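[worker-b] picked up task from shared queue
[worker-b] task type: protein-ligand structure
[worker-b] ligand name resolved to magnesium ion; SMILES cross-checked against name lookup, match
[worker-b] sequence length check passed
[worker-b] input payload:
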Amino acid sequence: MKAGIVIFPGINRERDMAIALAQSSGEAPRMVWHKETDLSGLDLVVIPGGFSFGDYLRCGAMAARSPVMQAVHDHAARGGYVLGVCNGFQILVEAGLLPGALLRNASLRFLSMDCHLRVERSDTVFASRYQRNQTFRAVMAHGDGNYFADDATLDRLEGEGLVAFRYATPQGEVTPEANLNGSVRSIAGIYTPNLRVLGLMPHPEDLVDPLMGGADGKPLFDALAAA
Amino acid sequence: MAREVNQQLAREFGLSAEEYGRVLEIMGRTPSFTELGIFSVMWSEHCSYKSSRVWLKQLPTKAPWVIHGPGENAGVVDIGDGLAAVFKMESHNHPSFIEPYQGAATGVGGILRDVFTMGARPVANLNALRFGRPENPRTKRVVDGVVRGIGGYGNCVGVPTVGGEINFHRAYDGNPLVNAMTVGIASKDRIFLSAAAGIGNPVVYVGSKTGRDGIHGATMASAEFGADSEEKRPTVQVGDPFTEKLLIEACLELMATDAIVAIQDMGAAGLTSSSVEMAGKGGVGIELDIDQVPARETGMSAYEFMLSESQERMLMVLRPDREDVARAIFEKWDLDFAVIGHLTDTGRITVKHQGRIEADIPLAPLADQAPLYHRPTAETPKGEKLNPARIEDRVGLTRALQTLIACPDLCSRRWVWDQYDSSVGGQTVKRPGAADAAVVKLEGLKRAIALTTDCTPRYCAADPEAGGMQAVAEAWRNLTAVGARPLAITDNMNFGNPEKPEIMGQFAAAIRGMAAACEALDFPVVSGNVSLYNETEGRGILPTPAIGGLGVLEDAAQAVGLALPPWLDLVLLGTTKGWIGQSLWLREIAGREDGAPPPVDLAAERAVGDFVRNQILAGTVRACHDVSDGGVLVAIAEMCIASGVGARLATHPRDIPGHAFWFGEDQGRYLVAVPDGAAFIRAAEVASVPAMRIATSGGQDLTLPDGGTISVKALRDAHERFFPAWMEGG
Amino acid sequence: MKATVTVMLKAGVLDPQGKAIAHALGTLGFKGVEDVRAGKVIELELAETDPDRARAAAEEMARKLLANTVIESFRVSLDG
Amino acid sequence: MKATVTVMLKAGVLDPQGKAIAHALGTLGFKGVEDVRAGKVIELELAETDPDRARAAAEEMARKLLANTVIESFRVSLDG
Ligand SMILES: Nc1ncnc2c1ncn2[C@@H]1O[C@H](COP(=O)(O)OP(=O)(O)O)[C@@H](O)[C@H]1O
Ligand SMILES: [Mg+2]
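[worker-b] inference finished, payload out:
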């Protein structure tokens, strides 16, 4: 899959993401500046983590209204793949590509630590190299990752099987203690109905090398590279 | 509107009568208000190092791998593969007490600029923090704000915060210390310096606009401002990490071209120090047109522009034919870009504002005739060497361990580092808590750098020379313990009022000790910062020469951590005599803060360290931890807690009392976990390094030689309790 | 003309910040604090001098950027 | 009785948020936005029914907790 990474001013995990994508695909992703509007030739558009526009006002709010986002909308509407991680997830939500909102962590503190994600379904391109109900480790690094949506939206997400990952214990139990940021129903990531747009808070791209503490995130990038 | 310039005003600006006399002599007339402001900040302790310069000269600064030592914005060392590490530590103590969040945040911002101004991409931040007693209600607020501020800035700019240290002591009640360190990586033949060159070349201002922030505190008494001056003149600067991030990217993008002749960040004393230093170092003159400086507020005077400490600004000298290239890059990043002057052949700084010459000062005497003081010193009386046999152990090993591992100075700092993004960049091999030094890989290479900050202020207070030596040795040891070759240090000398002989004596002695250690360990000082007058109501802080150390590993995969794997032999290297003076056991268990601190035997230090490093690089060592605060038993417990694996301890030598053996703080020691202890000890003997098998790992309990048993889980709970309970409870 | 946009979380959206402030006020000894909600205020200095048009502009800014209407509601007030 | 505490950065203090919002509004095509300041608002539901006492209490809460008076100023308004 030919991948591109969208760079907004203030984004800071684009290098991590590029390393993870290149490691799996053998090909450097294209870096797309936020003022560009042409995403043609890309199969996968990635919005990485960071602090777009400083996360001032609301995380992702200003980036979501940048020129490139119309092109991201169009790409998604054409059935293209989109991955938004951390700030990227916040941007997708602010742009209305995914439902809900990401509120301040329940602890009101920035959380930088490993967490475990339970795979809710594995019949998607993103999760195809994981097993359903398997847990994997990812790096959490955010101040506003507390997923929120109203009950009707949540019921629809659950009903249509659009919850991608939930915060869990290493053994795969979804408990309040494992839900570090307070997300509603422990939701860590969600899909669009066509399962081609994924937004998630923790960083699989920071665990793709045992030297850096593990390679739990690598299957996600391997799967994207092979698709 | 401006006040009359006279000796009285000079004093309010912080210049002594003698210093003002020198100003009159240099100028040959009464200086203008703006000129006096420029003299006062350039001759301030912060910019001129007038009390410390004579002593700092004693520090060794050279080694074959040192590319730039002190004198540039940051130190630069060759780390191989054509790359250089650029690093420095800087204090933001006073601002962090007034406004902990912004004070700490802008401290991080300032040190980042010192590093990327040299052409390096920042890859790691560390911070050395000292706070007052936890019981003091103010301390909690300061800790909360400082930690949030460091995270708020560092996380946003996307530089991982990978290490640091924290101590508590009542001496910091009214004067916490916030020392921030940044490490960047540059191509070793593309280092950018600040010496201006090229008569006629444009002087360019980039970054944020200038406001009235942080203008010289001394001038607050000036009548230049109306009754609403408090509203108008905040002394606290607010950091804007988003703009800093843009500035990093824009500067690095410009640095890939050949446009820059010289560049310097605007730090303390803002436009004044950056322009004076750039022109001064280059031996040229500089003319500034203040009307061109981007302003955030209206009606600012030349004096205010020159002294403002607004954040996120840089000054550069460009090649004239590259102005457009540079402008395009800064416009792309939505940053201000303005040509505010040019270089001249006058050797003077000339400041024009609204058609008037507001300042015109010869640069050479401003630098050469800056005050330099050889202030009187008084030696710190030495404490006696305590005999551990005469200090009764009333609690036993088990309870002492449980107390020590949970006390504020030794407990886990997880609550702190969990708020710092330590993984951004994707190169962090050893995160906080994983090893004695943080290890950060260089993108795309096998090579890694190791980083640490160290100082034990209670040792420095008891014997500043031994303490200064110990701080350097501990930094060297922490780098060694991960397998890195220590290369160089940066320092942050935090002391009280230098006009008091006993404080100046502490300073001089600490430098002596540091210099000896740097010399013996081939570990030169390449950058640093001095922060004096750290005292409130006449009471100074503990002398705190914080050391930031940097080392290199050719292969990141060779780095070892401190987590103890099961079924290994744990070997103690180095000499243990049971030094109890100034130990944490003495303070926390016996309730005494006295005695001489542990001495450092530099020859032994080097021999043991070189042996440990060679063994790590040879692949025989599975885990390593240096023995520092709390002694051997605390170090073993920390290794167990890190992995969740227990250990069974051997009995200690009869000739040393148990509490002194297990909790004494003799220097130059390491614990290593190895598969074959006997073979390892034989190798140590060959190298004349004292070694003894001290434990075997395995199980889930720590079993003490006196038969006491504590589960690792209970130890971990005790270790993790303090910070969350203190900060989040009630 | 100055327009002030006040943005508050909608009822039903958890407000951890408000809760934390309520708790902290309690710890400081303040009694009788029944509920606390935390929000944002954005003061806009507009060139527009006509109150109706200024209000309309501020409302549009709020809808388009200043508030996230999934979770927040806003109100606009004018002064000066 | 409800008291609203509005906390703004003091004049002259850099307001990075306000600056960024102004810039974003410009990008979105809004014209005539001359200045933007961002602040916080805290709505307090107080048991107190006497306006003077409610105001005094809210002011004390602002001084002690809600505002950081080193860099922020605040105002209190009452309604209902
Ligand atoms: N202020 C801080 N910020 C980030 N990490 C910290 C801080 N203080 C301590 N740490 C981390 O906690 C661990 C233990 O610190 P410390 O007890 O000072 O170690 P040592 O005694 O081995 O030098 C180290 O990994 C250190 O980097
Ligand atoms: Mg150590």
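[worker-b] attaching auto-annotations
[worker-b] Chain B touches chain A at residues 148, 151-152, 155-158, 240-243, 245-246, 333-334, 417-429, 431, 441, 443, 556-557, 728 (CB under 8 Å).
[worker-b] releasing lock
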